[in-house]
Amino acid sequence: IIIRAAQQQAVIVTHDSDFKRIKLLKTLLVQHQVGYIYFRTPKKYIYWDYVKKFVNHWEEIKEAVSNATHPFAFEIGKVGGISPLEF
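Given the sequence above, the corresponding structure tokens read:
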């Protein structure tokens, strides 16, 4: 996923917490200069809630990504708000 995102100059958007926990993935993000956005979700959630959160925070996400240099990582909190993740 990371290599393909780099080839397409894409940003990875996920709610998969493995991306946040596995150190090798962080190394690959840095190596391939890929941006990453992690949506923190409650244990029980409905897919539509994830979509609404993405849409509701679109302007904030767009601004953060536009101002960031690759590689970057951001986390969208359970109730909103965007914060940088350290590599």
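The CA atoms of residues 5 and 11 lie 7 Å apart. Try to locate this feature in the token string yourself.
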